[in-house]
Amino acid sequence: MRQPARWICAQLGSREHYAIPRALQSEGRLEWLLTDFWASPRWLWRAAAGSRFAAARERWHAELSGARVHDLGLARLFFDASNRRPGWETTIRRNDWFQRRHLAWLRANEKVIAGGPPGVFFAYSYAARELLRFFKGIGWKTVLGQIDPGPTEEAIVAQEAKRFPESAGAWRPAPSDYWDAWREELALADRIVVNSEWSKVCLQGNGVHEAKMAVIPLAFEQSGVRAAARELPKSFTTERPLRVLFLGQVNLRKGAHHLLTAARQLEDLPVEFHFVGPVEVSRDEPPGANVHWHGPVSREATARSYALADVFALPTLSDGFALTQLEALSHGLPVIATENCGKVVEHDRNGWILPAPAAEGIGRLIRELVASPERVAACSARAAVPARFSMDSLRRNLVEFEESIG
What we know:
Layout: E1 7-11, H1 19-26, E2 30-35, H2 54-57, E3 69-70, H3 74-82, H4 88-108, E4 120-124, H5 129-137, E5 141-145, H6 151-163, H7 176-188, E6 191-194, H8 197-204, E7 213-215, E8 242-247, H9 256-265, E9 271-276, E10 291-295, H10 299-308, E11 311-314, H11 324-330, E12 335-337, E13 351-353, H12 359-371, H13 373-381, H14 391-405
Parallel strand pairs: 1-2, 1-4, 2-3, 4-5, 5-6, 6-7, 8-9, 8-11, 9-10, 11-12, 12-13
Helix pairs in contact: 1-14, 4-5, 5-7, 9-12
């Protein structure tokens, strides 16, 4: 029986709450986690009151308390302080800085990679090129975790921005050197992990061979106790309307503009639309009285938003997966989604699939739901996170994936 491989994971940020390093650690496979900031319990300010350090405190996970972690510490905070301007230039500079810092540490600490046969190096796209080059050069297997559908997604959003310039907000395409670096990442990776069939198809359209890719869905964990079964009215009225929730970045890529247009077309119906998250679409045109803006909210307020809604809307143009649909199901909310993301929704079972992310289809479906509360209730009763998106499934998928790469 072949010995388990040792893995080194590089992760900029806390994507998926460190799910892949956690899964590998639980299987005894994680050698090192390389990240940008790690707020271990040794940091005294973890206990600091208030929201100032809230985001930083979340850069840690108890399941990795026994793991070997190398982070960039306060240097990351200093980097952010001196690179406040949002945009592609800052994003590219941060990705390059992250790699350079870890490369210098790896080269100065040979013990990190010594003491055994070559292992598996995993890093997420756009902050991986130089690290992939290093590990490939010393004989390790290299794996790229592709976080989105790549240039195909950008082309979809660019076309939408031309059709709806008033909703494009500050969206801009990435510079060509961003995609050039990404294509080098693809070439340096022995295998590529994507989170959905949608991403896989998009990457195939950019010349990535199907055999080089593996689809490993995201894992979701229920936080807290699931709320009691929802009580829906026998009919939706002005006093008790159908409540539709959009939660996330309110932008063009997520299809928020189509949902807003549908809302304006449905002002004659007992239905409310609640938008929770940072607003990136233009709000020059005043929405109807049935639209409610909540802006970014805390995790606690997010849970309340799910609890007060009847239906979750995700009319996304493109997503590598869209974890919010699992979060919504965990709260007993049926989901309105498109085909352009992770396949979670089963039509008329735990939600509904739109034929296209367009206002006409959204409006038609919501009219049907307002007229059929029993249809909403039936899908709500079946709204739950499928077992294939559990941490146990992720662990099994990673072990099988490791066996497939030899």
